[in-house]
Structure formats: structure tokens, C-alpha cells
């Protein structure tokens, strides 16, 4: 490979595939081997003299510059004297020499390798092919020089990873032949090549490869072979998941705990514990990168979640919570808290009196600030910094201490064995109004002592050192909008770090783990420079965009407990068994696909399947294979004889092979499928039988008729051929409609004579059903799905046009049947129900508990009929149930169905045409239901009022739905709220209702206000009147308050009503607002207060601390605006939060 071209490709890597090389001239312009760029004040210094080519040590130092972060294993140089240049063959090899235990030689094309330049390469010097796993990382230079004048030379330098596949590397355009032979070389009067001779000196430096991947192109790279570990496949944007999973996998105690979750009884793809166990097993056993598809599917994630970058910290917490629940009651119940949970103490300690208020809290990880902190120690000190409460901000310690100077802060009481540190690399930039990544330099050590961040009491309790060793570094490369995650992990106590980058695992150096992930400025960026191009970012940056995002440390004294050996005995046996079974099944299916042309599928209908059938025809070909009425589908070799297949079926049925006779099922013109004729030639193949008897373009189905052995030892199959006089037997199938049970089922088959009367089949039926011989029977012929006709008893079967395979349905003729006790009184009505039968799914109204279920109903059912069926299923009064259609786009309530509408179920489920264009699409297979406290007739005279109840200031919201009369008043609404919340009579009198529009209070609704006057597009808030307002004088002044973000037209949060005090400055008003809203501390300090009028384009009039609001109000239309960031905004741009099902 040409190293010049390789170098050039790096410069033009953004060009298309047909623009790899601009022109040959670019190589000819590279004759100045060294370019010295010096500052202006050094311009007068003399340039360093170039060495002579025969001063080999000096030339070596000149051409082989030291490569940063590399270590030399061996060096050598060798000179080849080239003679009679123009008489040499097209390709020539130089003498073999040794460096670093490897043989080397020069490869020379005297007339150019398809170019007008001399071509020189360095290649291995093995006699044949080198060993398959041989490689060497080499920095080398080739120097072509004039033996008569060593000051004339040409050099080229390159680095390359030599291996069996890429055994040579060098320079196709080493020197232009025309210039070397015929033009004075540079400033000399002589030529570079004189008398057809020249010297070529090869300088070779073998570079140590501590990671095994130095200058690796990763073509054919095998992670398992090189490192003993495998990676995880990226599904789209799941690199963050891969990093976290690998980190947890190599926390061996965690992996062992996951294996201890009992999943044998719940081993299915929706169980995230089971899929995580499978994933860990595959990481331990597989040879190649493992997919996480099963795991994300068990989380309930769809394509949208898979192609969205998510937050590692959030995923870690949700996964831990999910697994902790699954570990309850198992041997691993306390493992996760014992591994990952530490404790902090939040305290306020009085300085001058002996009083402290504190609480102990658990943490699974620690979030540390990066901005403003140079290293991990400073971040910890920032976390535990102490705030002094004094002056106007004194702490109220209660009786008897009252207001006191105090210290407030957080201190650690314990750290867990495995410490997860989340570095806050993303934060909200108020100037840009967006989330931004913090790429500041932040150093973290390989080891640190955490005892300095513990309380004195915690330090004194434990003699065990609190020294932590780095185990993992999870890295984010890119910016907030795009990026990539990978991880550096140390799988063993005394081993090396490895880089886990999706499906690739490589060994890493400590510089790659630490220094390259600190972030911060590039060391070699000159002042005012553009910086370097960043991966996954547009443009250049002076700061590294790849930096640590999460750190994993393990307490040194607990290393043996955390990084313990996970043996075969730790893996539940059912995991491997199940995976082996699945692999065997995959192999079987693969073999089936390969041999598919040799086989055919044959469906077999038997007496048993027919008796389990409850619908049209002999079976339904769309039934699930586990349905007892489904035809049994067999995979049969096409060359199998019919009698051989009959023997196999006979064995399944428990009869002799001669007792089975096949009838070919054919599709009739009326779209039914019935047995047509018996297959008498049993020596033909199954393929020939399908060709002869089957219907073209349809699957091949057979009915397996069985017969008992007669006295002659032969099966008693009637002869269906034309008998003398035309009175031949006809094969019919009998179905029974049970009027009382309202069911239909297959009974069996029978033979009748063509010339027999229809009524003559009745005694046979009574005997078959073990009924009294005098039982009256009604007979119907099932002609096709939509044609069921009563049969005339006195007609012959021939007159009734009965033929082989026809179906006759019978029922008892019950004279004293009460029609009110059954839905269908004869078979024709029931067949009509079957024809119009549809499965309808019923779901409880969203947000309401209740069972989901499915009922088979008729499309023709009226509202009352299907509501009665639902009421019967739910064991509730059907008049107390209401139904709603379900939106096809979002599965929410589309519209509530009115009971008075004269529609049947079909009309309700089919989407109706909208007057706004298109169809008002809703699901045609499902309805929502809601069980009401009153009848639907009464309910439809009332109205649902949605109210947001504010129970604790404005900090806690509760959604309420109150049912009141349509002509009711707000007082009725308040009574409904009181009843729903169990408020006493006095508390109910203190409830007020506010009408809110666009995040602002529109008005306060009085008790006798008619609810019909409430705008349906406004929100209603209800709250108990604060004590301060309840005791306010009659002349007290009030103001409506609302929140906005920068612009007054961007409201957010919950608005509220507030009482103003005459003469009170804004500074004091803030304290009362803090009590009213629960907003305290820094959040309150960051709020800017302003007076805002109600007009659409009002500009806020911002207030100062010494302003008196009462004095500044100009009219009653002004509101008090609280300008602060809307914390509810989702800056990650996700449609919904992360979740695990």
C-alpha cells in the first residue's frame, strides 16, 4: 500500500469515493521533507543543517522523530547498494536484514509501479508466507542517496502495522524518474542517480504494542480471540445502554446476584430479569458480539426508544429499581443495596447552642458538579460545602432556642463497596435557553481516599480504609444533540483496562483511560486556532468533546468481594438448557428451509377435530395449531406413498393402517370446503395425490375417515361408486345445535342412501345422541355460510340435492320452549349469529381499574343487547355501563356512545365519515367501558367537571372528576369535591374554585355560578382558602399571580391568588410568597418579580426588593408575574420519560 496515498486520504476523507486523489501533481510537490515554522523573532536564526546520508545515526535521528506515547522495542538500519539500475527487472528485492527478531527487506520497482516514478517499499523478509498471527508495528524511513555525494538524498517516512495480510508498505511515488536521472538535484549541479547506481538505506524502528491494536485497521478483528471478551451490538442509538450493561456485567457480584433471581417459572421474553440473565450468559459464553434486542424488547421499548439517545444515569436508576423488586424474597434480596447504596446526612447545626436537625438518606449514585471544579476532590468538597445561616437568614430552632446562627450542609455517613459517580456534564444554559455540554477539564484519579468526605462519627466507627480504586469510566463523545457512548473497564482486580465500544473490545493504556477523558483544552491548539475536529460534532473545537460522564470506583478492601469469580455453578441451569434448545430449533428450521423443496404440508381433519368444531364447515383453516378443532398439519416428504402416510395417521389415531381412508378436501364454488371423493389409489405418492385430487393454488387438506373391522377382517368402508338403481350411499356430516345451551358442535359422519327420505335419518340421530326414539327433530342443510335451509322430511336426499361431504344440522323441536330464555330459537338464527360474529375487546376507561376481556358478539346486536352481555360478564347492572370508541391513532377515548342512538354494534364500530373531511377513525375491534354509580339514563342528565385539587399550597396537584347536574352550580361542585375527598362541613365551606385560562387566573367562581357558564377550554383549580386570607379584613387587597419563563406570554406552573399587605416591600412579600407556594432557597432567589397587565403583548414591569407592590398597582387588571425557568420542559426532546416495563 502506498503510504503517500494513505496520508493524502486522511486529508481528503470527506470527499466522495470517486474523489480519493485529486491529481498526481500533489505528490510531486512534497519534495521538502522538513518544514520549519518559526515565530517572527526567530526568523534570523540559521536553519539546522541537514545530515549527510552516510552519517547513519544522524540521519536516523532526523527521519525517525520520536512518536509521543510510544516505546521503542528495537531499531536497525541497512543500506542496499543498487547497481545497473536500467538493466534491472521490473521488480527487485533487496537483501534481508533483521530488526526486532523479524526479517525485513526493501521492495523496489525500478521503472515505477504503474507510475513514472521509482517505487520503494519496506516488506517482511520471510521466505514464504509469514505466520498467520505475525505482526509488527513499525516506524520506518527509506532514504535514497547518491553514493558519490551523500548530501544528495530523498527521504520518505511512514508508520504501519505489518501483518500476514499487509506485508509491505511504502511509497509508489518515491521519486520522479525524470528528475532523479536527468535534472540537477535541488541546489546541486549533480544528479541524484548517477552511473545507474544509488544507495537505499532503510531505517526501521519496532514500536511496542501494549494494547495489541496500535495502528490496527480492525479488518477481521476478533474481540474474543484478542481479549477473551465480546462486545454488544448497537441497535441504532443504544451505545449508552451497552456501556452501562458492560459495566454492570463486570461488577461480578452484581452479575452473580442477577443469576440468583428465580426465572425458571417465568422464563419469557417480557421478563427483563430473564432477558438480562440470558444476555449475561451470552456475554460469558458467545464468541461474537451479542445483541440486546431481547433486553430492550422486555423493557417494552419500541423503535423510537431504540433510536433515541437516553441518559445513562436515569437508565441505571430505573434498572436498579426494577431488579431490586424482582430480587425480593430471593437469596439476592439485599445484594443490590449492599453493593451500591451509601448514606448521606443532611443537617442544620446551631453554632451557639447544642441543637441539630438532621435526616439520613440513602443514595445509589452521587451527582457531582464539573463546572467550577478542577478535579474529583474539588467536586466532593463542593458537594459537602457548609452554608452559614446568619443575620436575616437565621435558622428557627423552635422553642426554646428560637432564631439561631447555624451551619447547613450535607456530609457522607457511608460509601458503598461499588461507588457510581455521575459527573454533571450537561446543564441548562440560561443565556442560550438550552441544555449544553460542559467540556471543562475535570481530573479523576486511579485511586482516592474517600474518608475525608465522611463525618467524624463515620470515620471513627470503621477501621477499614476508605480507599477506592477506579474500575470503570463511561465516556460521552459529542455534544448534547449527538454523540456516542463507550466505556473503559477493568474486569479483574490486577488486570488491565479495556475499551468496550459497542461490538469491539480492545485493551487500553492508562493514558487512554485517564488523561484522554478529562476533557478541557487541547494542549497543541495555538492561540486563536480553530481547534480540532470533534467526533459526532459539526465543526472544530478547542476543547475535547470526549470526556468522562460516569465513574465507577470499588473500595480496595472489598475488591475480592465485588470482583469474584462467577463459576458455572452460579449460572442457573435452565438458562443454558433453554438457549441450547433454541439454537437446536434454529438449526432445525434452517435445515427445513434448505430441504423445503423435498417436503409438502398436508392438513388432516379427523372425527375428533370435527367434534371440537363449533362453526361453519368441517374446520376453520385459520385456527391456531393448538386449537382442538384445527386441522393437524403434517410435514411430509413428497415421495411418501399415500398408504405410508395413512399408516402414520392410523398410528396417531390408535387404529390399524387399513382402517384409515383419505378423502380429498376441495373448494366448492360457494366458497365452502368439503370432502369430494376418497383416494382409492393408495400406491401413488403424496405429491401425485395432491396433483390429481387437490385444488390448484390451495393447500392440500384431507379428511381421515376411520372404519371398524367387519366379520371378514376387512374395514367396513361403504362403496361410494354408483350402485345399481342409482341408490348409492352418500357421505354426510352431522352437527347438533343445542337450543338451551346455545351451542353448535360437530357430532360425526354418517352414510345415507340417495333414494332414502330425509326423515329416515332421524332414528339414526336419536340413537347417536341416545335420545328417546320419539324425540321430534328439525333438520337444516348448511349449504354455505349465508345459506342455511330447512330440509323437507318427505323428500329424498337426491331430491334435496344432498351429495358427498354435505353438512346436515339438527336440533330438538322443543314445543314448550320459552323464547325469552334463549337468544336463538332455531339453528338458522344461530348460524346468522356465527356469520355476523366478531370478537370485541373491552378495556376499562383509562385511569380506572377494571378487567380487560374479550366477548364474541354479533354485528347486528343493539346497544341494549351487547351491554347486557357485558353486564353479565362483569356481574353488574347493564344500565350502569357506558361505552366509548377508541382512537386508532393514540388508543385514547374517541367519543362516548349515547344510549339513545339507534345503531347496531357494526355501525358503532365502523368509523363514521366526518364533516371535516376524511374518516373519524377509531378501532373496529375494541371499546372502552366504565361502570357508573348511577344509571346511564340518569348519568346523561349530568356533567363531568374536571378539577385540579391543590392540597399543599401549589406544590401538589390531584386530578378529580366530579359528576354534577348539567344545570348545577359551583356550590354543587364544591360539595362533590368535599364528598370525594372526605372533607368535613367546615372544610367544605373554605373551598374555593378558580377558573384558569392559559396559565393565568381568569376569575374566582362564586357558589351560585351556573356550571353551564364554565368555558370547556379552561381549567378549574380548587383549594382551601389559606388561613391568612380567611382572616383577612374586608378591605384587604388581593392580586392574581402566575409564573412565566422570560416572556410574559409563556406561562407555566400553577397560578394562585395572593393577599397584599399595605406598605410591605417586595423583600418581605417574598417570604410570604415562599410560605404560600413552598418555593424556597436558591429557587426563590432566582425568581424575578414583575407586574404584568392582562393584555396579550404586555411587557413585564420588573420590581426591586424595596418596591411596595400596593403602591405600584395602577388598576385592578394587573397581575404579579414570577419570572423563572420552566423546570417542566423536557430539554432532551423525548416524547416521554425513560421506562422499563
From TrEMBL:
Subcellular location: Nucleus
Residue ranges of domain USP in the record: 230-556
One of the record's GO cellular component terms: cytosol
Enzyme Commission (EC) number: 3.4.19.12
GO molecular function terms noted in the UniProt entry: cysteine-type deubiquitinase activity; endopeptidase activity; metal-dependent deubiquitinase activity
Main location class: nucleus
Entry keywords, A to Z: Hydrolase, Nucleus, Protease, Thiol protease, Ubl conjugation pathway
SUPFAM superfamilies, sorted: Cysteine proteinases, TRAF domain-like
Reaction equation(s) it catalyzes: Thiol-dependent hydrolysis of ester, thioester, amide, peptide and isopeptide bonds formed by the C-terminal Gly of ubiquitin (a 76-residue protein attached to proteins as an intracellular targeting signal)
InterPro entries linked to this entry: MATH/TRAF_dom, Papain-like_cys_pep_sf, Peptidase_C19, Peptidase_C19_UCH, TRAF-like, USP, USP7_ICP0-binding_dom, USP_C
Family label: Belongs to the peptidase C19 family.
Listed PANTHER family: UBIQUITIN CARBOXYL-TERMINAL HYDROLASE, UBIQUITIN CARBOXYL-TERMINAL HYDROLASE 7
Protein's name according to its UniProt entry: ubiquitinyl hydrolase 1
Protein source organism: Exophiala mesophila (Black yeast-like fungus)
Amino acid at each position: 500500500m502506498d503510504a503517500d496515498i494513505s496520508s493524502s486520504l486522511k486529508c481528503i476523507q470527506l470527499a466522495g469515493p470517486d474523489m480519493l486523489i485529486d491529481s498526481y501533481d500533489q505528490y510531486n510537490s512534497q519534495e521538502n521533507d522538513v518544514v520549519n515554522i518559526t515565530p517572527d523573532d526567530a526568523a534570523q536564526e540559521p536553519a539546522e543543517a541537514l545530515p549527510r546520508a552516510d552519517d547513519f545515526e544522524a540521519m536516523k535521528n532526523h527521519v525517525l522523530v520520536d512518536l509521543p506515547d510510544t516505546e521503542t522495542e528495537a531499531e536497525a538500519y541497512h543500506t542496499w547498494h543498487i547497481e545497473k539500475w536500467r538493466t534491472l527487472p521490473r521488480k527487485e528485492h533487496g537483501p534481508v536484514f533483521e530488526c526486532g527478531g523479524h526479517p525485513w527487506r526493501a521492495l523496489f520497482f525500478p521503472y515505477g509501479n504503474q507510475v513514472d516514478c521509482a517505487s520503494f517499499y519496506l516488506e517482511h523478509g520471510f521466505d514464504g508466507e509469514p505466520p498467520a498471527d505475525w505482526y509488527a508495528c513499525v516506524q520506518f524511513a527509506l532514504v535514497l542517496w547518491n553514493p558519490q555525494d551523500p548530501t544528495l538524498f530523498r527521504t520518505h517516512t511512514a508508520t504501519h502495522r505489518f501483518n500476514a495480510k499487509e506485508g509491505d508498505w511504502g511509497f509508489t511515488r518515491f521519486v520522479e524518474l525524470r528528475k532523479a536521472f536527468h535534472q540537477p538535484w535541488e541546489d546541486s549541479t549533480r544528479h541524484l542517480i548517477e552511473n545507474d547506481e544509488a544507495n537505499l538505506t532503510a531505517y526501521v524502528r519496532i514500536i511496542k504494542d501494549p494494547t495489541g491494536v496500535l495502528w490496527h485497521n480492525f479488518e477481521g478483528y476478533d474481540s474474543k480471540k484478542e481479549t477473551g471478551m465480546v462486545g454488544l451490538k448497537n441497535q441504532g442509538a443504544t451505545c449508552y445502554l451497552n456501556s452501562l450493561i458492560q459495566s454492570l456485567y463486570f461488577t461480578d457480584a452484581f452479575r452473580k446476584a442477577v443469576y440468583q433471581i428465580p426465572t425458571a417459572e417465568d422464563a419469557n421474553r417480557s421478563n427483563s430479569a430473564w432477558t438480562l440473565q440470558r444476555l449475561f450468559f451470552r456475554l460469558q459464553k458467545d464468541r461474537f458480539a451479542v445483541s440486546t434486542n431481547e433486553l430492550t424488547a422486555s423493557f417494552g421499548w419500541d423503535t423510537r426508544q431504540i433510536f433515541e439517545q437516553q441518559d445513562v444515569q436515569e437508565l441505571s436508576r430505573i434498572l436498579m429499581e426494577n431488579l431490586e423488586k424482582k430480587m425480593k424474597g430471593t437469596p439476592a434480596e439485599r445484594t443490590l443495596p449492599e453493593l451500591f447504596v451509601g448514606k448521606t446526612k443532611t443537617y442544620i447545626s446551631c453554632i451557639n447552642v447544642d441543637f441539630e436537625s438532621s435526616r439520613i438518606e440513602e443514595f445509589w449514585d452521587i451527582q457531582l458538579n464539573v463546572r467550577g471544579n478542577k478535579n474529583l476532590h474539588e467536586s466532593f468538597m463542593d458537594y459537602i460545602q457548609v452554608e452559614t445561616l446568619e443575620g436575616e437568614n437565621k435558622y428557627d430552632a423552635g422553642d426554646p432556642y428560637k432564631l439561631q446562627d447555624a451551619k447547613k450542609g450535607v456530609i457522607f455517613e457511608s460509601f458503598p463497596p461499588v461507588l457510581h459517580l455521575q459527573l454533571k456534564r450537561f446543564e441548562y444554559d440560561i443565556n442560550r435557553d438550552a441544555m449544553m455540554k460542559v467540556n471543562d477539564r475535570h481530573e479523576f484519579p486511579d485511586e482516592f481516599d474517600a474518608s475525608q468526605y465522611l463525618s467524624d462519627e463515620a470515620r471513627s466507627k470503621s477501621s477499614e480504609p476508605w480507599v477506592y480504586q477506579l474500575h470503570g469510566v463511561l465516556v460521552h463523545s459529542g455534544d448534547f444533540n449527538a454523540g456516542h457512548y463507550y466505556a473503559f473497564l477493568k474486569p479483574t482486580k490486577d488486570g488491565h483496562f479495556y475499551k468496550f465500544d459497542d461490538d469491539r473490545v480492545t485493551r487500553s493504556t492508562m493514558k487512554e483511560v485517564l488523561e484522554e477523558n478529562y476533557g478541557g483544552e487541547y494542549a497543541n491548539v495555538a492561540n486563536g486556532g480553530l481547534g480540532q475536529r470533534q467526533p459526532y460534532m459539526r465543526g472544530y473545537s478547542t476543547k475535547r468533546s470526549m470526556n468522562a460522564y460516569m465513574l465507577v470506583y470499588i473500595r480496595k478492601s472489598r475488591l475480592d468481594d465485588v470482583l469474584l469469580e462467577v463459576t458455572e455453578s452460579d449460572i442457573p441451569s435452565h438458562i443454558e438448557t433453554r438457549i441450547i434448545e433454541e439454537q437446536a430449533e434454529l438449526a432445525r428450521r434452517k435445515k427445513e428451509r434448505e430441504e423445503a423443496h423435498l417436503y409438502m404440508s398436508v392438513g388432516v381433519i379427523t372425527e375428533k377435530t370435527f367434534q371440537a368444531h363449533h362453526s361453519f364447515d368441517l374446520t376453520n383453516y385459520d385456527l391456531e395449531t393448538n386449537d382442538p378443532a384445527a386441522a393437524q398439519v403434517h410435514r411430509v416428504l413428497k415421495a411418501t406413498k399415500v398408504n405410508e402416510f395413512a399408516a402414520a395417521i392410523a398410528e396417531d389415531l390408535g387404529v390399524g393402517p387399513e382402517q384409515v381412508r383419505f378423502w380429498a378436501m376441495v373448494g366448492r364454488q360457494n366458497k365452502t370446503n368439503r370432502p369430494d371423493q376418497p383416494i382409492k389409489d393408495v400406491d401413488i405418492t403424496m405429491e401425485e395425490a395432491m396433483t390429481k385430487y387437490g385444488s390448484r393454488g390451495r393447500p392440500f387438506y384431507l379428511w381421515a375417515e376411520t372404519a371398524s373391522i367387519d366379520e371378514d377382517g376387512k374395514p367396513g368402508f361403504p362403496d361410494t361408486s354408483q350402485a345399481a338403481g342409482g341408490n348409492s350411499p352418500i357421505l354426510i356430516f352431522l352437527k347438533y345445535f343445542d337450543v338451551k345451551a346455545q351451542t353448535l358442535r360437530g357430532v360425526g359422519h354418517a352414510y345415507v342412501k340417495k333414494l332414502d327420505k330425509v326423515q329416515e335419518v332421524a332414528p339414526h340421530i336419536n340413537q347417536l345422541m341416545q335420545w328417546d326414539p320419539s324425540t321430534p327433530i328439525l333438520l337444516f342443510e348448511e349449504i354455505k355460510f349465508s345459506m342455511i335451509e330447512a330440509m323437507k322430511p318427505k323428500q329424498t336426499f337426491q331430491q334435496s340435492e344432498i351429495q358427498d361431504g354435505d353438512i346436515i344440522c339438527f336440533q330438538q323441536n322443543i314445543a314448550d320452549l320459552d323464547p325469552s330464555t334463549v337468544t336463538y330459537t332455531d339453528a338458522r338464527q344461530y348460524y346468522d349469529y356465527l356469520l355476523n360474529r366478531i370478537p370485541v375487546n373491552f378495556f376499562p376507561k383509562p385511569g380506572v381499574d377494571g378487567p380487560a376481556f374479550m366477548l364474541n358478539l354479533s354485528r347486528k346486536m343493539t346497544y341494549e343487547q351487547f351491554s347486557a352481555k357485558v353486564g353479565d360478564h362483569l356481574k353488574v347492572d347493564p344500565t350502569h355501563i357506558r361505552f366509548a370508541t377508541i382512537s386508532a391513532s393514540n388508543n385514547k377515548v374517541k367519543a362516548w356512545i349515547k344510549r339513545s342512538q339507534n345503531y347496531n354494534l357494526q355501525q358503532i364500530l365502523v368509523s363514521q365519515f366526518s364533516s371535516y373531511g376524511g374518516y373519524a377513525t377509531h378501532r373496529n375491534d375494541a371499546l372502552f367501558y366504565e361502570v357508573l354509580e348511577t344509571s346511564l339514563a340518569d348519568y346523561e342528565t349530568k356533567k363531568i367537571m374536571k378539577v385540579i385539587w391543590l392540597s399543599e399550597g401549589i406544590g401538589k396537584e390531584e386530578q378529580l372528576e366530579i359528576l354534577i347536574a348539567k344545570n348545577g352550580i359551583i356550590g354543587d361542585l364544591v360539595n362533590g369535591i368535599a364528598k370525594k375527598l372526605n372533607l368535613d362541613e367546615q372544610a367544605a365551606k373554605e373551598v374555593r374554585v378558580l377558573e384558569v385560562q392559559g396559565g393565568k387566573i381568569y376569575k374566582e367562581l362564586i357558589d351560585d355560578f351556573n356550571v353551564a357558564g364554565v368555558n370547556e377550554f379552561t381549567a378549574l383549580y380548587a383549594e382551601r382558602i389559606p388561613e391568612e386570607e380567611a382572616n383577612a379584613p374586608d378591605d384587604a387587597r388581593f392580586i392574581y399571580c402566575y409564573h412565566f419563563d422570560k416572556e410574559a406570554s409563556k406561562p407555566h406552573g400553577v397560578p394562585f391568588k395572593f393577599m397584599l399587605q399595605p406598605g410591605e416591600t417586595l423583600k418581605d412579600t417574598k417570604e410570604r410568597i415562599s410560605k404560600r407556594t413552598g418555593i424556597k432557597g436558591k429557587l426563590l432567589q432566582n425568581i424575578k418579580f414583575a407586574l404584568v397587565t392582562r393584555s396579550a403583548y404586555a411587557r413585564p414591569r420588573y420590581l426591586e426588593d424595596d418596591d411596595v407592590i400596593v403602591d405600584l398597582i395602577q388598576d385592578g387588571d394587573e397581575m404579579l408575574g414570577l419570572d423563572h425557568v420552566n423546570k417542566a420542559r423536557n430539554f432532551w426532546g423525548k416524547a416521554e420519560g425513560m421506562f422499563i416495563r
